[in-house]
From TrEMBL:
PROSITE patterns: HELICASE_CTER, UVR
Coiled coil: 172-199
Keyword Cytoplasm: yes
GO CC term, one of those recorded: excinuclease repair complex
Name the record gives this protein: UvrABC system protein B
Entry's family note: Belongs to the UvrB family.
Pfam families (UniProt xref): Helicase_C, UVR, UvrB, UvrB_inter
All copies of domain Helicase C-terminal, residue ranges: 345-498
Residues of the UVR domain: 548-583
Gene3D superfamilies reported for this sequence: 6.10.140.240, P-loop containing nucleotide triphosphate hydrolases, UVR domain
The entry's keywords: ATP-binding, Coiled coil, Cytoplasm, DNA damage, DNA excision, DNA repair, Excision nuclease, Nucleotide-binding, SOS response
Any one GO BP annotation for this protein: nucleotide-excision repair
NCBIfam families: PRK05298.1, uvrb
């Protein structure tokens, strides 16, 4: 089981704003642990037939070519004849660095005839090569912390530090092709009297070429991926899909949301890159460093299972076979649905909340706007209800804490807009209230209504109330589908003698991998105080040099927080940096 997601804690793509003649340099903070997991994922795909990879839509973004990647792999068997210097040079080609003091991932150390190598894709084991007279006498895996030998190995395969590593001969050939394109582009820009753009492009590209010649890579090397991968202009970039075997199976969860995301990535990336090319910051070939287009994704996708409680039109049109998994082994049926008048929805809701709170059950309420969710929260709170709201302005970590607190009974009611849908699994919720259910639109479409109603399907007493003055087409379809599923489950229960049972889920499940409950609240108070001090300090900044200095200071703090896995605090720093950059553009 492997994990492949974006490895950026913070990512600011390079961009150019022509109106203010402002170039924003690419800035990123890579999470070392996630990078290790990405390398481990591709290694598993290349070596095993039983690999399961959990990924996000980031899998359609460019990755190093698997053909080039495999050409850089180094195999070592016990008994091999090896020249130590040649071995160390080979490790340098894999972008490993020698460090006899700090033994970390993608480094190696040499002690006489013993070479310790910490594989780039490993987080638990390092490899020890013991030589005798230029022969591999022993090959073993050991604990990099204690030095204890875990097991002896007959052979081992070392993979490069990065997916973008390139053989020297390919790199030299790519550099020649880059020079040819550079010359053609410079001639074009000068013919258009774009002398500043030509000078800028030549300076930036020649610097990159010099870095590639000396180090084997440069910052932003992915912008030359067309030449490094040997693919023609306009060809789809190599991605994680290129590492999949021919008989792979793709399972897309919540496909009605995931599939549209695939198509949305290409256009935003394209418009930003076209500006960079037009103003001489990048060669036209940089446009080939992009996510896959939707048609390219369709062409490369293996056999696919779309999983969704509310499949979209795309799934319906492309599915060769539809399999319903409506019945639950617990016997739980979908919630009963009531329609009540919208005119008295708030007072009626308050009455229902008091009933559920007395039974120690929870309530979800969905509104149409952020302002309405906040106003409703204030109103319910004024009437003695323990209530919180949840919307897009609340960061991811805090959202998880809010959901945990709801399940623990810290409060009884959660008010939201569009976040109380897919993925929320809360058996304690017995009532879902949908305000203004008759307002047709994205938030009140049949799919949205079915997803929201389904949040009460984990509770034995589940019920959904739709407040509306008329029954819309979306409401009719959502109610009809929910009733169909109810009837199917009830018939199944009767046929098999099943008595519905409530679901019991440990609250700790939802916070797995996070900190101990309660520990973050103290940190948040400290961070809130720090944020207030930061805000006062930022207001005193006046000149561009002062703002730039402050940005650099905050960036250092942000990277340190990310290294310490304090992602919430790092995100706050990132937001502060974003505000300062906006001020810098306005100065």
């Amino acid at each position: 089981m492997e994990y492949f997601v974006s490895y950026y804690d913070y990512y600011q793509p390079e961009a150019y704003v022509p109106s203010s003649d402002t170039f924003i340099e690419k800035d990123a903070s890579i999470n070392d642990h996630i990078e290790q997991m990405r390398l481990s994922a591709t290694k598993a795909l290349l070596e095993r037939k039983d690999a399961i990879i959990v990924t996000t839509v980031s899998c359609i973004y460019g990755l190093g070519s698997p053909e080039t990647y495999l050409r850089m792999v180094m195999h070592i068997d016990r008994g091999d004849k090896l020249d130590q210097r040649a071995l160390l040079r080979r490790l340098a080609d894999l972008q490993y660095t020698r460090n006899d003091m700090d033994f970390a991932r993608a480094t190696f150390r040499v002690r006489g005839d013993v070479i310790d190598i910490y594989p780039a894709e490993s987080d638990l084991e390092a490899i020890r090569i013991e030589l005798f007279d230029d022969e591999v006498e022993s090959l073993s895996a050991f604990d990099p912390l204690t030095g204890e030998v875990i097991r002896k190995l007959p052979r081992f395969t070392f993979y490069p530090k990065s997916h973008y590593v390139t053989p020297r001969e390919t790199l030299v050939e790519a550099m020649e092709n880059i020079k040819v394109e550079l010359q053609e582009r410079l001639e074009y820009l000068r013919s258009q009297n774009k002398l500043v753009e030509a000078q800028r492009l030549e300076q930036r590209t020649r610097f990159d070429l010099e870095m590639m010649l000396e180090l084997g890579y440069c910052n932003g090397i992915e912008n030359y991926s067309r030449y490094l991968s040997g693919r023609p202009s306009g060809a789809p970039p190599p991605t994680l899909f290129d590492y999949l075997p021919a008989d792979a199976l793709l399972v897309i969860d919540e496909s009605h949301v995931s599939v549209p995301q695939v198509g949305a990535m290409y256009k935003g990336d394209r418009s930003r890159k076209e500006t960079l090319v037009e103003y001489g910051f990048r060669l036209p070939s940089a446009l080939d460093n992009r996510p896959m287009r939707f048609d390219e994704w369709e062409a490369i996708s293996p056999q696919t299972i779309f999983v969704s409680a509310t499949p979209g039109n795309y799934e319906a049109e492309h599915a060769g076979r539809i399999v319903e998994q409506v019945v639950r082994p617990t016997g739980l049926v979908d919630p009963q649905i009531e329609i009540r008048p919208a005119l008295t929805q708030v007072d009626d809701l308050l009455s229902e909340i008091h009933k559920r709170a007395a039974l120690e059950e929870r309530v979800l309420v969905t509104t149409l706007t952020k302002r309405m969710s906040e106003d409703l929260t204030d109103y319910l709170s004024d009437h003695g209800v323990r209530v919180r709201y949840l919307h897009s302005d609340i960061d991811t970590v805090e959202r998880v804490e809010i959901i945990r607190d709801l399940r623990l009974g810290t409060f009884d009611v959660l008010v939201g807009i569009n976040l109380l849908r897919e993925g929320l699994d809360m058996p304690e919720v017995s009532l879902v209230a949908i305000l203004d259910a008759d307002k047709e639109g994205f938030l009140r479409s049949d799919r949205s209504l079915i997803q929201t109603i389904g949040r009460a399907a984990r509770n034995l007493n589940g019920r959904a109330i739709l407040y509306a003055d008329r029954i819309t087409g979306s409401m009719e379809r959502a109610i009809g589908e929910t009733e169909r599923r109810r009837e199917k489950q009830i018939a199944f229960n009767l046929e098999h003698g099943i008595t519905p049972k409530g679901v019991f889920k440990d609250v700790a499940d939802i916070m797995e991998g996070a900190t101990v409950p309660g520990s973050r609240s103290k940190k948040r108070k400290g961070m809130a105080k720090a944020a207030e001090e930061n805000a006062r300090y930022e207001n005193e900044l006046r000149s561009p040099s002062e703002i730039n200095k402050r940005i650099r200071q905050l960036e250092e703090k942000m990277y340190q927080l990310a290294r310490d896995l304090e992602f919430e605090a790092a995100a706050q720093m990132r937001d502060e940096i974003g505000k300062l950059r906006e001020r810098l553009l306005a100065v």
